[in-house]
Amino acid sequence: MAGKPLPAPRKDEGETPPTAAESAAEPDPISRDLAIFKIGHGERRDLTQLLDRVCSAGRFESALLSSEEGFSLAASSGAGDTDDLAASLARLAFAIDQAANKEGQAPTAFLIRDARDDLMLCRMFQLRGQRLFFTTRSRNSRTTSWDLDTVVPKIEEALEPGPAPDT
Known about the structure:
The protein is α+β, with helices and mostly antiparallel strands. Helix content is 35%, strand content 20%. It has one domain (29-34, 43-159): Dynein light chain 2a, cytoplasmic (Beta-Lactamase). It has helices at residues 20-25, 29-36, 47-58, 83-101, 145-149, 152-159; strands at residues 62-67, 72-75, 109-113, 119-127, 130-138. The chain is globular and about 40 Å long.
């Protein structure tokens, strides 16, 4: 009596995760798109335009740049009310810092998944002695903090003082 054949394993079952070399050889399309986009001429002055392009390249619903003190510094066009989010991120980062300090490690990112399975990913970085938060919202469950690592230098570049505008 022949039994039914076993179903093929799901793609994520029974397979070993790719090695770092394999991952580097075939980057995720989102990571690749975020890594290759360049800052446009006007984006040094218009952070909203830059964050809109980040959202487009990363397939994010919205993006927010905020300060450690809880102030919204810039947001993408679709970000909605950012003041409450910026203040909440500052409080949450403080709590995460307190927990992490017991382990002696400073966090660089945190991820929140809500009841709708949306992701909020926050990448923390220092610029000229000030701690800033770059936060995205996404429905893509494959988004990682490494995706944002490629964007932070572009934001830093946009925030660096440039030549004085022509008058």
